[in-house]
Amino acid sequence: MPVIVLDNGTGFTKLGYAGNSEPLYTFPTAYADQESVSRKPGLLDDLDFYVGYEAQDRIGTHTVTYPMRHGIIEDWDKMERLWQHCIYKYLRCEPQEHGFLLTEPPLNPPENREYTAEVMFETFGVGKLYIAVQGVLALYASAQSKKSAKLGLENPLTGTVIDSGDGVTHVVPIVDGYVINSGIRHIPLAGRDVTNMVLQKLRNREGPNIPPEEALRMAQVVKEKYCYVCKDLAEEFNKFDQDQSLFHRHTQPQKGGKSFSFDVGYEQFLGPEVFFHPEIFSQDYTTPLPNVVDETIQACPIDCRRPLYKNIALSGGTTTFKGFHNRLQRDMRRVVDARIARMKEDLIDKTRDIQIEVNVVNHDLQRYAVWCGGSHLGATSQYQEIAHTKQQYDEYGPSICRHNVMFQSALREKRKY
Ligand SMILES: Nc1ncnc2c1ncn2[C@@H]1O[C@H](COP(=O)(O)OP(=O)(O)OP(=O)(O)O)[C@@H](O)[C@H]1O
Ligand SMILES: [Mg+2]
Questions:
Q1: I need a surface site. Which of 46, 99, 100, 122 has the fewest CB within 10 A?
Q2: Which residues pair with 188 in a beta bridge?
Q3: pTM of the prediction?
Q4: CA 224 to ligand 1 center in whole angstroms
């Protein structure tokens, strides 16, 4: 039976079978029930809850919550019900007949991993379980792209992963499949912040044109449809001032044949700019993404730094903005060139040539990179070796999932590339 790959993100859950190129289901990690809506006790049966888009559609009649925050599970009861939905409503499978591959953010507390194992084995009785670090899976996925192959990397499982989803952005250095924990950097900005930034701009300017209950959804639509990363902020403002056709008029159809329209302006390029000029939007967080990536690599052992600059892999929905890859490539190059210039100042021979190759790798599966890496791993014989079985769990308890054993196997896995 195929392995089930389940990547729960702060914003979206990606679910499907290993070996497929894309997840079968992608839906919001949202949960709704009538918990705090006044009702007679005992009136609702156990099944009166909703997940995903069905949950989001029940704002107003149900309490809608998101069980994850910043990539980490916060409400375990609701998460368990969401998993129940994934298994019995979406896939309609017998969990004991399948292996499961779940994902976790870097630096996930081991207690969380153990608790996940407990729920998976005891509540659902899954046949096998493996919990993989998201960054490593994303690097697996990137390693299979044409662009990665062209780079002639000595080891495609060495690289720096930028995983930016809905609730969190992580920069993760990985060497030979091992995560270098001390180098991991976390940026408190991700897709949800870009949506909020777009929302704020739309509210200020287009307030009366957008029904208030639709405002957040419209901000997300604008972000995903129109936003892009520009080359230079001042230049882009100038372009907009000279060319009115760069402003868009968005028309949103509604039920009953009605529709409403509003303008989309500077937020098209201002939203994603938060990663490159965070100081414009916040006083608390001011380090641009390229500098964070540079800091991450510099925090790693000196002999690993060159391959980490050579293979910077993108992962997550928020890295798919048009122009994101090119801007990051250019700005990373500038940061590294500035570093080389500083190094040369200290050299006696100022003419000595110092070369550092910098590559930001984008690919078609970036949006689902973590899930796709899991899909690949789940379809290999390696998965069967490293996953824990129900018998092992029954014998040793949840502590068998405390340590992640993937990295040793990753060393063998890499020879396949
Ligand atoms: N075309 C697009 N352009 C820009 N952003 C997009 C696009 N498509 C999706 N997104 C955004 O990507 C985010 C979801 O990405 P992803 O599924 O990687 O996050 P997640 O795994 O749920 O969150 P996290 O990894 O932070 O826990 C959302 O904020 C969504 O709006
Ligand atoms: Mg994610």
A1: 46
A2: none
A3: 0.92
A4: 9
